[in-house]
Amino acid sequence: MKTTVLGLGILSASILTALAVSAATEMDTDGDGMFSLTELQVAYPDLTAETYASLDANADGMVDPEELAAAQEAGVLPAS
Ligand SMILES: [Ca+2]
Ligand SMILES: [Ca+2]
User: Fold this and answer.
1) CA–CA gap between residue 80 and residue 72 (Å, rounded)
2) Which of 60, 53, 57 has its CA nearest to residue 70?
3) What domains, with CATH codes, occur in the chain?
4) What is the mean pLDDT of the segment spanning 54-79?
5) Between vectors from CA 6 to CA 5 and to CA 11, what angle results, nearest 5°?
6) Ligand 2 centroid to 2 CA: how many Å?
7) How distant, in Å, are the alpha carbons of 3, 7, 33, 46, 61 from that of 80?
8) pTM for the predicted model, two decimal places
9) pLDDT tens digits, one per residue of 12-62
10) Any idea which ligand is nearest the CA of 58?
11) What is the CA(1)–ligand 2 centre distance, in A?
């Protein structure tokens, strides 16, 4: 019984991770692994250049998946 509950927990965590990854992959329309302002504006039409710059924590001009996840965790962007 304990094993079954643990297994279900692992299964649902895997499904959630897969969903998050697939949503992120859909946003990255040119497939370069980074999210440009234009790509993010498809999912977040209200995103401004100023907000985008604030998401870019390492200031390399692009938002990477980690920076996107951090923004979603901080509530700057709604998790999709
Ligand atoms: Ca991209
Ligand atoms: Ca960056």
Assistant:
1) 9
2) 57
3) 2-74 (1.10.238.10)
4) 95
5) 95
6) 42
7) 31, 26, 17, 14, 22
8) 0.69
9) 666 455 556 566 778 999 999 999 999 999 999 999 999 999 999 999 999
10) 2
11) 45
